[in-house]
Write a structure and sequence with these properties.
The chain is mainly alpha-helical. Helix content is 70%, strand content 0%.
Length: 831
């Protein structure tokens, strides 16, 4: 009867006429009618009272609903705006839902969608949202239609429509929460599609919608949603903040949350280590609330833990300890969370790997000692991720490992990780994890396991690796051990590792760090300096490496250690000279790898050359020099074909120079030098310029320090070879040979008789005189000085040679000067 009364009331009125025009076949008239209707109802004073507006709406609702399907877009927009105004005025009656909902369902949920205008679709969603907010649970009878509309509009092409549809899902879920579980699962698939929209505000709306679906709908949907939601933690800070908020809401409000803690907690806990301060603070606040609520809900079970809860003595200072409820929740969920988490740490994308490492760190901190039973699986994942290409992932793995060391004792984790150190498949990864674990372990507990760790590190499979990353990791763990523990009992094991790194690393920074750690090791072991450390362990090191000396190659670890000792041990070498010389005799003359001999000879040369004489620190060098000459130097002096043999000859001659300059007058040394000196004439004609130059230096050293080794025959043999060097391609060798020849004739043998050597002297003078006319003025002067000294032996012969050849010279003044000098010598001899 009310409808009839209303019809009579509006009959003949302006509104009734307008309503009739809204049904006109001409769309322009319909448009004008809609505009006039809006003006009459809302602008011209008609319907100012709510009851009047309600009557007007009830009278015109069916016609307005028809206009929502008008062929003209502007008419549909106008009709939609009119309906929204009625909704805003709260005059929409429940019985008119039967009119509006089917129209909206038809326009939006039919496939293909009849409504082409995105503006109209947006208005329809706004109408639907307004109706839901007004009628709340009264919308239950229309649940199928509403859900069908939302399923289509959630994946609408228009971003604004999508966003409004997601907001509408939230409103509808809360409005019909008692029955929403019956239809909620049908919205999951379209919402998952919308979750990856390019607009972050759309993603935020979608995440909120998914959260409400889980809270008010079917809880088991979380099995499909937890993964995609967790991936949103790699999104923008605004999106991450919403994910954390949704995670907190699920942890406190989802009805079936106790069955799905392992899927809910990652959404919230991932925010505890977020880079954004707002996200982190929100996550911390929500996590405290969740823990507090869990304590309240399980007060009887947790009463004892709450009453006797105390902060562990050794707790990370950088972490804030969670409450009992939080820790209990994590401990109960670890079993289900860890497998998927460790799988994500091996993901092909860096983002999931980093998020997984952060979440694992959070779980370790919250689980505390409860993590112990899972430590094997966790260490497996940490070792795998410690060599990640992304430095941020490695940094997080190190942090996680360090925190793990706070809660898990060495007696538990060492048996699990030490066997991995020697496996070539793992490389330096276990070392990185072990170093971080040791950082977090209390010093007292670490000291108890110090010996086991040091022995494992000194194992040749672990320590004798030249990979730079491996050596850096070794240095890192050793640095931690030396800093946190007393290394006295494990001094040898640590020393051997550091010595190998210092001996073999090609990175200068690594070598410097290793040497620095050797210094620190000496101080921490109660020794005055690092050389005391070498004194302490040199014998043991030499005992270890000498057994393989005869089979060394250039890349044999023991050989590299031996070279390192020769380089670094300094004065300690003199105390073990017998053993060192024995090793040199064992490896240098062998022909397995000539590079071993070459490097040993070079090191020997430098040791003999040093001013502090490290090999003679114990006064035993004189005893072993004959052995060095006979067994190490001399075998490489004779000529052999090949560039390698040439390099060995050069090194051997350089060692011979150093031995000569050591000025040791031992009888056996003199005998060996005499034997080596016989090989020098041939070496002065070697193909190598360095060898020729060093050979001249040997002769000079013998003349200066061992003149008794040179007899008449030796003198002339050497002199002939030196004169031939005047014509060397190298100017330095030419000048050097002239100076050596001068020195050679300054100290003639005691039994030297010029009368017997006349022919040899003449040949020598004739050969040398030629170079007085050399273009090189420096050589001219050196040869002149040499002839001046040589002429003292037999001035008449030299004068005769000079007078004969003088006319041939371009630079006659040099020749004439020598003739005058020789003439003066003859006069002086007569007087």
């Amino acid at each position: 009867m009310a409808t009839v009364d209303t019809s009579h009331e509006f009959a003949g009125s302006d509104i009734n006429g307008v309503l009739n025009s809204m049904k006109d076949a001409n769309k322009a008239k319909r448009r004008k009618a809609l505009e006039k209707y809006e003006s009459v109802v809302f602008e011209c004073g008609k319907g100012t009272e709510q009851d009047d507006l309600t009557e007007i709406f009830n009278y015109s609702a069916s016609i307005l609903a028809t206009c929502l399907s008008d062929q003209s877009e502007i008419n549909r927009i106008n009709a939609s705006n009119i309906i929204l105004k009625f909704i805003k005025a709260s005059v929409f009656t429940e019985e008119k839902l039967l009119v509006m909902i089917p129209v909206i369902h038809h326009r939006l949920a039919t496939v293909p969608c009849p409504e082409e205008s995105e503006d109209v679709r947006l208005l329809f969603i706004n109408i639907l949202n307004g109706l839901i907010n007004i009628f709340q649970a009264k919308m239950i009878p229309f649940m199928n239609d509403v859900v069908n509309v939302l399923k289509e509009t959630i994946v609408d092409a228009s971003p604004d429509v999508r966003k409004s549809a997601c907001e509408c899902v939230c409103s509808f879920a809360k409005a019909v929460k008692d029955k929403f579980h019956m239809q909620s699962e049908s919205l999951v698939k379209p919402l998952l599609k919308a979750l990856h929209h390019q607009r972050f505000k759309n993603r935020i709306a979608c995440i909120r919608a998914l959260g409400d679906i889980l809270i008010y709908g079917e809880s088991r949907s979380i099995q499909d949603l937890s993964g995609p939601l967790a991936q949103c933690m790699m999104d923008l800070p605004q999106v991450r903040l919403v994910v954390v908020t949704v995670g907190g809401a699920l942890a406190m409000e989802m009805p079936d949350r106790y069955s799905y803690w392992q899927r809910i907690l990652p959404l919230l806990l991932s925010g505890l280590r977020d880079e954004d301060k707002d996200v982190k603070n929100k996550a911390e606040s929500l996590w405290e609330d969740v823990g507090r609520k869990y304590e309240e809900e399980n007060e009887e079970q947790l009463k004892e833990h709450i009453d006797f809860d105390a902060v562990p003595e050794h707790y990370p200072s950088t972490e804030k300890r969670s409450g009992v409820g939080c820790r209990t929740l994590v401990q109960k969920s670890l079993y289900h969370m860890l497998p998927g988490l460790l799988t994500d740490m091996d993901d092909w994308q860096a983002g999931p790997r980093l998020q997984a490492a952060k979440l694992l760190t959070t779980l370790v901190v919250n689980a505390e000692s409860g993590i112990t039973q899972y430590v094997e699986k966790i260490l497996e994942g940490l070792v795998l991720a410690s060599s990640d290409k992304e430095s941020s992932v490695v940094k997080q793995v190190v942090e996680c490992s360090e925190l793990l060391g706070y809660f898990v004792p060495p007696t538990t984790y060492l048996p699990l990780i030490l066997p991995r150190l020697s496996g070539g498949e793992y490389g330096e990864r276990p070392l990185i994890v072990l170093s971080a674990l040791a950082c977090g372990t209390p010093s007292a507990l670490l000291q108890e396991s110090m010996t086991n760790i040091a022995e494992a590190l000194s194992n040749e499979d672990v320590s004798h690796v030249m990979n730079p990353g491996h050596q850096s990791a070794l240095l890192q763990i050793i640095q931690v051990l030396i800093e946190k523990c007393d290394p006295t009992d494990s001094s040898y094991s640590i020393f051997s590792v550091l010595l190998y790194i210092a001996s073999t690393s090609e990175e200068q920074d690594t070598v410097s760090i290793a040497q620095e750690q050797l210094d620190i090791l000496a101080k921490r072991s109660g020794l005055d300096n690092v050389y005391k450390l070498y004194d302490l362990h040199l014998s043991a090191i030499l005992d270890t490496i000498c057994t393989t000396a005869s089979s060394w190659t250039e890349h044999t670890p023991h050989f590299m250690i031996f070279l390192g000792l020769l380089e670094l041990a300094g004065q300690s070498l003199g105390c073990r000279l017998e053993r060192i010389v024995g090793i040199l005799c064992n490896c240098v003359p062998k022909k397995q790898d000539p590079f071993v001999s070459l490097k040993c000879l070079i090191k020997l040369y430098h040791l003999l050359k040093q001013e502090d004489h490290p090999l003679d620190s114990n006064g035993e060098l004189e005893t072993f020099l004959p052995v060095i000459l006979s067994d190490i130097v001399k075998p490489h002096l004779p000529w052999h074909a090949g560039s390698t043999a040439a390099a060995l000859r050069t090194a051997a001659v350089s060692c011979l120079v150093s031995v000569c300059q050591a000025e040791v007058m031992n009888k056996k040394v003199l005998e060996e030098l005499q034997s080596c000196l016989a090989l020098i004439p041939a070496l002065t004609e070697d193909d190598s310029e360095d060898t020729r130059l060093l050979s001249c230096e040997v002769v000079m050293s013998v003349v200066n320090y061992f003149p008794q080794l040179i007899d008449s025959d030796t003198l002339h043999t050497l002199a002939d070879k030196l004169v031939k060097r005047f014509d060397d391609v190298n100017a330095v060798i030419r000048q050097k040979s002239a100076r050596v020849l001068t020195a050679l004739f300054k100290q003639l043998p005691e039994n030297y008789d010029p009368r017997i050597q006349t022919a040899r002297l003449r040949d020598l003078y004739e050969a040398a005189t030629v170079f007085l006319d050399d273009p090189d003025e420096i050589l001219q002067g050196a040869v002149s000085d040499a002839l001046q000294e040589m002429g003292k032996v037999s001035p008449d012969i030299l004068k005769e040679v000079l007078e004969r050849d003088c006319p041939k010279f371009r630079n006659k003044h040099v020749c004439q000067k020598l003739i005058v000098s020789m003439n003066n010598l003859q006069i002086a001899a007569v007087d």
